[in-house]
Amino acid sequence: MTVNKKVLILSYYWPPSGGSGVQRWMYFAKYLKQLGWEPIVITVDEYQAAYPVMDPSLLEDVKDIKVIKTSTREPLRFYSLLISGNSQSGIPQAEVKRKSFIGKAAAYVRGNYFIPDARKGWVPYAVKAAQKVIREENISRLITTGPPHSTHLAGLQLKAQFNVNWWVDFRDPWVDVFYNTSFYRTAKSEQKDEAFEKEVLHSANGIILTVGGYLQEQLKKKAIDQHFVVLPNGYDTDLMNTIPLAQPKDVFHVVYSGLLTHNQSFVEVLQVLARVSTTESILLSLAGNISHEIIDEIKLSVPQVEVVYHGYLSHKDAVSLMKKAHLLLNFIFKGAQTQMISGKLLEYLATNVPVLSIGNPRSTAGEFLSQGSASVMLDAKSTKEISAFIEKTAFQKGNLFNHFPQLDQWSREGLTKRLINEVLSTS
User: CB–CB of 228/207 below 8 Å?
Assistant: First the structure.
């Protein structure tokens, strides 16, 4: 008897969308295909989507994957136009700007009219496309991934209509995500969002999380009998092996890659770099979604440091920049200390370059980093420890490497094998 190895994946983010949100299921799909499965992806047409960044280079990794693109209705475009004057720029990520009247009004609209989120207009299109695929391809396995968590509402409808084994992937928390507290939500809005989350938690066959610990405990209280599987983010071995380590010899090269906002504690690290720069030549390379306001603030804080902002880089170019560093910086979002371990952090570790992360040392991510020979999570107030780590790394630049035990457990291929064994094979 031939086993049906088809799995339908609903993901709003998909190449050529860039950013961290797209990579998790892009790589799962890539390695599912290599391991004998047939992933079928339903996503939104990139010309209608509200993607904050684009990275066409990622298309190469999923060129063999069957992808169905749908239309969408995007109230997010009007929200984006309201706060930025540009309907294509999307919403600010990981922080809510509330200093101006327009900012406060936009936060209220976002929190009370876009429930569960501003991409909910995609749901009917995703459902219609999925209904057709399920019937034509005899699909028995369905995965929805969020954010946007409105994608799970499509899963709810499909679960009610078809005999599918439906797993929900929480890349980030839903109701308890840290930035929800900034939206001036009314009690009615909070109750509506909680009701959506509760219905999804109780209706799905299983829940996939990127991190266990406190987040899993929170969700377990909401759905006591639900089955949870922790599949963390990871790094792609193929990509890492194609890019050589290329650290400069005449300057201490510090790199930060990713989103950077005022909701992250980076000032203390800048103060240390400013002191070290009086005796050591420093190059600070920045890449990702970073406002000109923050770039200017950084340059003023470290006048003797050469600061280079590369803008948003393709994934391959971002990894290449990481491998040119003597020190990699990471800043956990305030309020998200217990909620996630980013894929970027795993890629940092896979470079073998020393890592300094600012956050809660007792968090899951902090305890995880502590396993490395030259990777630490330090509280922003621990200025002596921050200074000591940076000075040690600068003194040993080019000779200090971060060795992490059993790192291959977090390879994208290895995690996909776990996905098959712990999720898809349970169908």
Answer: yes
Q: Which residues of 74-109 are buried (b: 16+ CB within 10 A; e: fewer)?
A: bbbbebbeebeeeeeebbbbbbbbbeeeeeeebbbb
Residue 288 one-letter amino acid: G
Q: Are residues 191 and 263 in the same domain?
A: no
C-alpha span between 222 and 228 (Å, rounded): 12
Would residue 1 count as lying in a domain? Answer: no
The domain total for the chain is 2
Give me the domain span that covers residue 135. 6-234+411-426
What are the backbone dihedrals phi and psi of residue 403, each rounded to the nearest 5 degrees, phi first?
-100, 125
- 181 and 307 together in one domain: no
Q: Which helix (H) or strand (E) holds 282?
A: strand 282-287
Cα separation, 119 vs 139, whole angstroms? 25
* 384 and 421 belong to one structural domain: no
Q: For 194-249, how does the pLDDT look when each residue is reduced to its tens digit (9 = 90+)? A: 999 999 999 999 999 998 777 888 899 999 999 999 999 999 999 999 999 999 99
Q: How far is CA 124 from the centre of its chain?
A: 25
β-strand 375-378 against 306-309: which pairing, if any? unpaired
